[in-house]
Amino acid sequence: MCGIIGAISQRNVVKTLINGLYRLEYRGYDSVGLAIVDENSKLFRVREVGKTIDLDKKIQHLAVFGKIGIAHTRWATHGKLSERNAHPHVSDYISIVHNGTIENYRELKTWLRKKKYLFFSETDSEVIAHLIHWETQRNKNLLRAVQKVVLMLHGNYSIIAMDSRDPKRLVSARTFNPLIIGLGKGENFLASDQVALSSIVERFLHLKKNEIAEVSKNDVKILSFDGRLIERRDVSSQIYQEIPTKGLYRYYMEKEIYEQPEIIEELIKDRFDSKNNIFFSDLEDSRIEEIFIKMESIQIVACGTSYNAGMVGKYWFESFTDISCNVEIASEYCCRNHVISRNSLLITLSQSGETADTISALNLSKNLKNYLASLAICNVSNSYLVRESDFSIMTKAGMEISVASSKSFTAQLTTLLLLVAYIRNLRKKSKDSFQKDLFLSLKKLPKYIEKLLLNHQEKMNFLISDLFDKRNVLILGRGDHFPIALEGALKLKEIAYIHAEANYAGELKHGPLALVDKKIPIIIIAPYNGILSKIRLNIEEIRSRRGMLYVITDERVSIQEDDQTKIISLFDIEEIISPIFYAVPFQILAYNIALFKNIDMDHPRNLAKSVTVE
Ligand code: F6R
């Protein structure tokens, strides 16, 4: 999703900005742009619908040079995908880049039109450029102009503004969307994501909500929206976030699917001590143990794949501990009233830690009574959710580039399961062998996933070729495998562009059975577990209506094949780790269909990796 960068230096910043754009690519975008002020104070802007590489080529050809500049990756929210909607937006000598949305842009546009401003784009962002221009005419100073403008804007945003008449400073402001300042020697940078800057600086300042920064080559001044000067200590981070390469894989998605066995193996190594007891080095603060013992309920909030992981977490918390657990989609959680039960813990689950809806939910929870604390389970250690939550646990899946989550999902599930076992142990008066048994089960998981990845053609090819030209698919599951059906359906929608719907297998007879005919493929997840007999009933309901059925199951389960029922028999997986394992066949299925259809699965249409708007 949109990413912004700014640079001011004593050397040419074009390459730095372009490199930053490359590094922001993984967030997902549909157009890019850059503005530079050259040695003669001339503003130079280049925009491109397409990839950073196209902009890069264009700029090399034009031999642009400048020591101050701003750049942007756009993921369209207001106005179609076109060059004139791409950022930076310009109002005479003012140029701006913007991440987020301006809710009152229509009113502002009407007001600006009355002041004779012309609009060249359909975006909400262009009003910011004109408003700053209007204000600089009054008080000549970019910082003061931005201070006035932020009071007029309603919405969630981060912006960087540049004035070509005064190429000695950039002014940036944010409400909700992240913004980080990278501190160099005789040069400073701004970006919406540390990834964009981690190859050039090691010291950072985080701009917080409702703050403005004036950034020059040698200085950074931070002010609150109400004008107070703010002292902020810089933080040092030497984590050079190398953007991983695809290696020999065709897509990041493929690479990330194949990385899963190793990630789980590492998680086991990291989270179990030599006596096979679980420990979380990220939770060293002794208060959290007290909270885990005192808490009476858990509220998980997340979006998309992370929500699906949270759903599995709910089953696990309620099966293996005495704590009740609710899960809610973050975009719903943040927009309704709540009754929070006594002594609750809020858990946010997120790969990126920058998802706007999940951040809103966390922010809302801070004003709600009865939460003991917030805990983020996240894959990005310097993300907003990690910084702003009381406690955090890392899922350690490594940087995920492909827009559709794969390895981050199985890492979230593994982490959740470990957390459940850890909390169970803390709360149990008489300790049992749960952790040690879990260790033994988890140890087998990487091998099973590896085996499936090696043999998937033999096991799954007929399913892949049967489904590849279908428009609709139903996926059914029960219990802790229902969220796996949800995740499977999400993968098919996202990267294979197939309309896939997940249903509780037991709900079939309450409606979806009407869809069953010879044409719509139905996949049912039938692991070997305590509710297999119920799943068998659901299988019979479909068979007796001549539905086109695919049963993904275990070698211990015998189900008769016929011309309408096909069996994908996987390995004997222990019940406790089974949801983690069963996520993988769906990743393989969606990935292979996308491959057949020649879909750029790392960048599925209309989607972005980091969803930073609500
Ligand atoms: C699906 C996918 C999305 C994300 C969702 C939340 O493959 O990747 O549904 O899961 O946008 O993102 P995070 O986990 O970063 O909060």
From TrEMBL:
Top-level taxon of the source organism: Bacteria
CC annotations in GO: cytosol
Entry keywords, A to Z: Aminotransferase, Cytoplasm, Glutamine amidotransferase, Repeat, Transferase
Keyword Transferase in record: yes
Entry's localization field: Cytoplasm
Broadest EC class assigned to this enzyme: transferase
EC number annotated for this UniProt entry: 2.6.1.16
Free-text function comment from the UniProt entry: Catalyzes the first step in hexosamine metabolism, converting fructose-6P into glucosamine-6P using glutamine as a nitrogen source.
Name of the molecule in the record: Glutamine--fructose-6-phosphate aminotransferase [isomerizing]
